[in-house]
Specification:
Layout: E1 41-45, H1 51-61, H2 68-76, E2 80-86, E3 89-98, E4 102-110, H3 119-133, E5 138-144, H4 148-157, E6 160-170, E7 176-185
Parallel strand pairs: 4-5
Antiparallel strand pairs: 1-2, 2-3, 3-4, 5-7, 6-7
The structure holds coenzyme A (COA).
Coenzyme A binds next to strand 4, helix 3 and helix 4.
Length: 202
Amino acid sequence: MRPFTQPAAHPAAHPAAHPGADAVADPLAAPQPGSTADTVPRVQPLGLQDLDAVLAIEQGAYSHPWSRGNFSDALASGYWAQGLWLGDTLTGYCIAMRGVDETHLLNIAVKPDAQGHGWGRYLLDVLKAWSLEQGAQWLWLEVRESNHRAQTLYANVGFARVGLRKAYYPSGREQRENAVVMSLALKAAPAARPVPEPARPA
Ligand SMILES: CC(C)(COP(=O)(O)OP(=O)(O)OC[C@H]1O[C@@H](n2cnc3c(N)ncnc32)[C@H](O)[C@@H]1OP(=O)(O)O)[C@@H](O)C(=O)NCCC(=O)NCCS
């Protein structure tokens, strides 16, 4: 996760430069045998109307959550912002920014009571597929040094640790925490996994 700063006016962040940003093809969402409308995951663009549900997840998932304004700024900037829905329930989301030949993951979270069932990995697979469609070569992210769970997930998906940003995140009172910088070479990345099965209601 990246601590939120006002998005830079990056040309690639403008929706007009992102024809695919509003209609990401979800390569993994093929319905499973026996699945129902409530268990087939849908990945679709987030809108302002989703921010109550997004904030409920964000505040349960992070010690230092993004604010509503951070999310609305991200949407206004045309960042790739996708929600994962199981039926009517927002179960997770992922926000990323397109650069010249890379995609930068800004935020990913799964509803606390749905974590550990493969949805984080699934969202990363969707992000990888979209990034490849956009012609990106690399995926980049920062993660708190103490967030071993997320680092395990990223390593399993094929990310390598490439650096450390000292005192990058706010932590306790007047304290800061380092960020581990990780990157993934998209063309060499392991293949996506199938949709988590069974798809558990959140
Ligand atoms: C990080 C997060 C998005 C992962 O989503 P998730 O749905 O829980 O993760 P998954 O179920 O897809 O697990 C993927 C991998 O994470 C690892 N993992 C899952 N649960 C774990 C746990 N309790 N402890 C350690 N590792 C765990 C596993 O290695 C798993 O790999 P596998 O699929 O090869 O078994 C989610 O835990 C979350 O929202 N955390 C809070 C917000 C956050 O930290 N975001 C990342 C900021 S950089």
